[in-house]
Amino acid sequence: MNTKLLVIALASMLATPTVFAHGEEKHEPAAMATGREAAEAELNVAPAAVDAVATVERFAIALSAGDLSKAGAELDPGVLILESGSVERSRDAYLGGHAKSDAAF
User: Fold this and answer.
1) How many other C-beta atoms can be found within 10 angstroms of the C-beta atom of residue 99?
2) For 62, phi and psi rounded to 5 degrees?
3) How many CB atoms lie within 10 A of CB 50?
4) Closest Cα partner for 5 from 70, 81, 95?
5) Cα 11 from Cα 56, distance rounded (Å)
6) What does each C-alpha distance from 104 to 30, 69, 101 come to in angstroms?
7) What is the value of pTM for the model shown?
8) pLDDT tens digits for 14-71?
9) What was the pLDDT predicted at 76?
10) What is the 3-state secondary structure (H, E, C) of the chain?
């Protein structure tokens, strides 16, 4: 299996509940915690995972900035994205659909 595809799939599964939007529901400001600063976090990454972590970080940064072109460049064309009971069966399907609400969130 393509390592990039595996990394993105695993990261998507792990990050889905906290990073990505879940449909069209709105989140109340009180439900969003403040004070969690990534700049203060200490990250220990195994040398074999450095490239994978960098890929996930580039994807997350591009998506949160609303740059779907850059986010899509980090996805394998055949990526399978499972989210909230639905499936996006390719990079293009994701970018043409749910990625927009993920970026807005």
Assistant:
1) 23
2) -65, -45
3) 10
4) 81
5) 7
6) 18, 15, 5
7) 0.60
8) 555 544 445 555 555 555 555 556 667 777 889 999 999 999 999 999 999 999 999 9
9) 95
10) CCHHHHHHHHHHHHHHHHHCCCCCCCCCHHHCCCCCCHHHCCCCCCHHHHHHHHHHHHHHHHHHCCCHHHHHHCCCCCCCEEECCEEECCHHHHHCCCHHHHHHC
